[in-house]
Amino acid sequence: MNYKVLLIVLLLLGLGNWNSINAQEKEKNYGFRDESLSIDERVTDLINRLTLEEKAMQMMHDSPAIERLSIPEYNWWNEALHGIGRSGVATVFPQAIGMGATFDEDLIFEVSSAISDEARGNHNTAVENGYRRQYSGLTFWTPNINIFRDPRWGRGQETYGEDPFLTALLGVAFVKGLQGDDDKYLKTAAAAKHYAVHSGPEKLRHEFNAVASQKDLWETYLPAFEALVDAEVETIMCAYNATNGEPCCANKYLLTDVLREKWGFKGHIVSDCWALEDFYGGHGVVETPEEAAALGIKSGVNLNCGSVYPSLVKAVEQGLVTEEEIDEQLAVLMKTKFKLGLFDSPTNNPYSKLSAKNINTSEHRALARETAQKSIVLLKNDNVLPLKNDLAKYFITGPNATSIEILLGNYHGVNPNLVTIIEGIAGAIEPQSQLQYRQGTLLDRPNANPQDWASPNAGNSDATIVVLGISGVLEGEEGESIASETFGDRLDYNLPENQLDYLRKLNEAAGDNPVIAVITGGSPMNLKEVHELADAVLMVWYPGQEGGNAVADIIFGDVSPSGRLPITFPKSLDDLPPYEDYTMKGRTYKYMDEAPMYPFGYGLSYSEFQFSDVKLSKGRIRKGQNLEASIEVSNIGSRKAEEVVQLYVSDLETSVDAPKYQLYGIKKVNLEAGSSEEITFEITPEMMELINNEGESVLEKGEFKIYIGSSSPSNRSLELGAAQFKEAVFTLR
């Protein structure tokens, strides 16, 4: 080779190396990489380096890498409803409705803290191995704090139930556990969804207009969202449907007037997935993707889950939106990435230490079991539970006894050790006992073979455990419930008739031997005949990976049941308004006229509790004053148990329709047999406020009644065996 050519080659190689070194040095000098600057300064520097095309793509849920700035790709879409979902092995906790049944904010904080440990461990492990795919990020679209206003909604299982106070209490705890308590970094970013007034019909969600009065908005549909904004939730997800005539993701009243201006929300807004496409494909408020993209930006939607925001480039060219408006919304979104530490050195972030070792730990498995135990609701017990675990013969049967599906609910992870109910029962009985199993009946249709070799076992068994109910194939999101002809909603309130036929046979065959019905599902259902035929009834929801063990713990008495219903079980859908009607009159324990099958807040124990008379610190108060209500709770039964003490407040003199009573306090007490504990509730002015027809919170003078007990204060609760609740009256002057 000519030495001149060689010299040129060496110079070029040296220049290449210099350019590489120079690029690395430049990267270090980018303002958005400088951790000494404020987040606002870093965001501004970053946005100023982006082209319009890059800005648009960074506002997509699947934002691509920007190689020239050494910014890796990032997928914003992750789920953590009851454990990190869809991302491989993780601890699977009970479904959200089961967590609602615990009535336990401290426990739910523990659960979400464990989930966020696993989330960081999952993310860190994925990135270390070069994976930046969907469901491996740190932004979680959880929790679902919609109000479960109607049992027909298939996605109600994702919520904490029908009550705004309980929903807010547990939702705030969940957000705090997910987001952590570091002064600088978010552990993960939580999202409150679906904002707002969203609870079916599932099939119509892309075009449906939910009409809600100002009173219902501010009394029922918005309080939990406000509570989570006050708790500094990082993300709000706007819903598919329209509310009062405007799509939720383009609803000026909800997004601007209320969320940004009234509540002062500082985080980012994400569209539900492909909700911006519904602007032209469902709601018909615009005609083109470019118009939809511009409307999304002008409405304050910072992140597009879907496919619309790439059209922002053409929208700018068409004069529908300005680049400055895009910059403003992108800046809000980018702050979240900085709060998560995605542009910082991992050595400065305490959560970078979490790894695969923090996923699916024995401690998390124990927590999943405890949560499942505390979620199980004892609906009936004719003195047959708890069972001894050394009887001669047990018979377990039913379509869900061996089902993994009923452990999971929706938006779930997977686990290498999912404990079905038959496995839990088998693991709990003594070696000398015999356990027989037959499925007996199919889930939702008659057996093709008419021969019945199953039900006679109930006659020669000391106890029969029949696992009935529904699963995620019958209820859930629009496209997931593959056995549902109504797109995941449950327009038929009854259990499948073949299940009832089988239970009738078991009841007849069993004679004097007890039949225990274990019911799975994420929503209320007609259990009237189950209640009549079975000697004991347990509602176990979708109990997670330890579900089988938790059910066995309850059945054999290792744990006394303490779950409470977070939603009313009506006797019939005929007792409710039409599904599409979003007015609250006639709905939930607050406004329902007909006596329910099972009331909100109801659940039995293996022990017996008694409440003393309520002592009020004051009988008359002035506006703005608090008072205290004290009560002594006594375990007068024969075994240690946990009681869920509930406070309800009723405004007896109102200028407009008001709830019969409202839950405003929960205290859990764990008492040995024969022991007592005095507990005190503080009653604040906020608990006395009335929402008027204009949606305003007002304090009206007059008499108020408080109830304290183990269930909502209805006659039906007492008929079913709940402890007698106690009452007291005070006057607001």
Automatic annotation (TrEMBL):
Ranges of residues in domain Fibronectin type III-like: 643-712
Q: Name one GO biological process term.
A: xylan catabolic process
Q: Which superkingdom, per the lineage?
A: Bacteria
Alphabetical UniProt keywords: Hydrolase, Signal
Recorded hits in Pfam families, A to Z, give:
Fn3-like, Glyco_hydro_3, Glyco_hydro_3_C
Q: Which InterPro entries match?
A: BXL, Fn3-like, GH, Glyco_hydro_3_C, Glyco_hydro_3_C_sf, Glyco_hydro_3_N, Glyco_hydro_3_N_sf, Ig-like_fold
Which GO molecular-function terms appear in the entry? alpha-L-arabinofuranosidase activity; beta-glucosidase activity; xylan 1,4-beta-xylosidase activity
Q: Which PANTHER family does the record match to this protein?
A: BETA-D-XYLOSIDASE 5-RELATED, SUGAR HYDROLASE-RELATED
> Family, per the entry?
Belongs to the glycosyl hydrolase 3 family.
Task: Name it.
Answer: Beta-glucosidase
Specify the species: Salegentibacter salegens
